[in-house]
Amino acid sequence: MQVTMTVNGTEVSRDIEPRTLLVHFLRDTLGLTGTHWGCDTSNCGVCVVWVDERPVKSCTMLAAMAGGKSVRTVEGLERDGELDPVQRGFMECHGLQCGYCTPGMMMTARWLLDHNPDPTEGEIREAISGQICRCTGYSTIVRSIRWAATHENSSSIESPETAGSPS
Amino acid sequence: MQVPSPFEYERAQSVQHAIALLERLGEDARVVAGGHSLLPMMKLRLADPEYLVDINDLREELGYITVEGGEVRIGALVRHADLLADENLAALFPIIRDAERLIADPVVRNWGTLGGSLCQADPSEDLTTVCEALDAQCVITGSSGQRVVSMAEFYRGPYETAVGEAELLTEVRLPIRPGGASAYQKVKRRAGDWPVAASGVAVWLDGGTVTDARVALTAVGAEGVVDVSDVLVGATPSEEVFAAAGALASAASAPVTDSRGSAEYKRHLAGELTVRALRSAVERALSSTP
Fold it and tell me: What is the C-alpha radius of gyration for chain A, rounded to an integer number of angstroms?
């Protein structure tokens, strides 16, 4: 069947098997491997992307069901070459160890901050409660999202590693 | 990699179209809404439909929450996140927010639907219990029109409902009765897990006396609403009365020992959670009436 959707602002149209899951469509058909594929049972949340502005576990949605809808993946967080504050927060605060859960965590974090710009630690933990960090690095993930909340409007012209260092 | 067996995908343009598709495709067709129960079952081959009828485009027809004529009407395609966020529902039926806060996890709640949860009829599913406690009516639509059934008729047992092959659950109606309040109490091991046990309660008071009460249980093998009228109706709420009702809930449960806990523990929870839910519901009823 033919499926057409908007992915990170670009319309894509592909011929797929109806049983293709959205996560595999993004990764294997479109080559957007930023979205990870983990437990396959909607438990771990590494596959979280947005469909029509709502985070979803893309291992539990058919690509066909996303037809006609707007999908945003971790590749769509960066704007005009600038990293999203959430991405910068994860760099600043060591929000990732192995990095496997990171794309899903960041997509949920972005959605949380869009709806609750100043979340408490408890609200952040609730928001990511359906996602598993196998390295158990939750404290730094929460800290990264708090960092993003307090740096939403700051520029990211300097990358975090070089910020403050002489040019 | 877990993927479903091959199937044909159809997207419904209206409720009537969905029903026409189901009639034409017969018993090998299944409706998909949020898909968060059906797709995992298809991956495991516990469900193996030849056709999927996607009803997610029917938001206008099935995505409403309205208060009218002494009842709340909720379209079957309303998602968990919307049930959780709705302030009218939280004020009228606090049991809904109690339950929704603990259903699956926030991302899953973005897509799972009321209708999908009820039609899946998982014995560990929370909204069936909520609807039983609130004495909900379910509107089932087929090609010959609508029929309205009680929860006792709707839920026929694990994974079985009154919805026929070529029918759709389209609406849930919750009656608004004065002096009422409700609560849901659940124990689960961690975020996203199924409950070990849960209890849903609705009570109605008049001048400090209980005039009616409904108790329903989740995941403990109880059938339908627990009859607590003997100890609650006509009583003045007290810890002793709650304990007596909890004992009835405990006795009405028939749990099995599994990885979530022993039968004995779950039976204990059925009673204790009923006591806590009653305490909470009565407190809410008394604080909302002057």
Answer: 16
Q: Which residues contact B62 (CB under 8 A, 6 or more apart)?
A: B15, B55, B75, B76, B77, B78, B115, B170, B171
Task: State the CATH number of the domain containing residue A64.
Answer: 3.10.20.30
User: Cα–Cα distance between B197 and B250 in angstroms, integer?
Assistant: 11
**A interface test, pick of B10, B82, B97, B110 with most A CB neighbours within 10 Å:** B110
Locate the chain A residue with the closest alpha carbon to B111: A56
User: What are the structural domain ranges in chain B?
Assistant: 8-54, 59-175, 180-288
- Given A52, A76, A100, which residue is the final one in a domain? A76
What pLDDT, on a 0 to 100 scale, did the predictor assign at position B190?
87
Please give the residue range of the domain that contains residue A146: 85-150
Instruction: Answer yes or no: do B110 and A108 touch at CB < 8 A.
Output: no
Q: Which fold has domain B180-288?
A: Enolase-like; domain 1 (3.30.390)
Find the CATH number of the domain harbouring A111: 1.10.150.120
Architecture of domain B59-175: 2-Layer Sandwich (3.30)
The answer to whether B29 and B53 have CB atoms below 8 angstroms apart is yes
A69, A96: one domain: no
| Minimal-distance CA residue of chain A relative to B112 | A56
Domain-located, residue A128? yes
**Low-confidence residues of chain B: pLDDT under 50:** none
Residues A43 and A89 reside in one and the same domain: no
CATH topology of domain B8-54: 3.30.43
> So what's the pLDDT on residue B211?
97
Is A16 inside any structural domain?
A: yes
Task: Please check whether residue A70 touches B, CB under 8 A.
Answer: no
Tell whether the model's pLDDT for residue A165 goes beyond 50: no
Q: What is the pLDDT of residue A155?
A: 60
Tell me what pLDDT residue A156 has.
52
With a cut of 60, say whether residue A157 has pLDDT above it.
no
- The CA dihedral of B129, B132, B134, B137, to the nearest 10 degrees, is 130
Q: Among B4, B6, B105, whose Cβ lies nearest the Cβ of A130?
A: B105
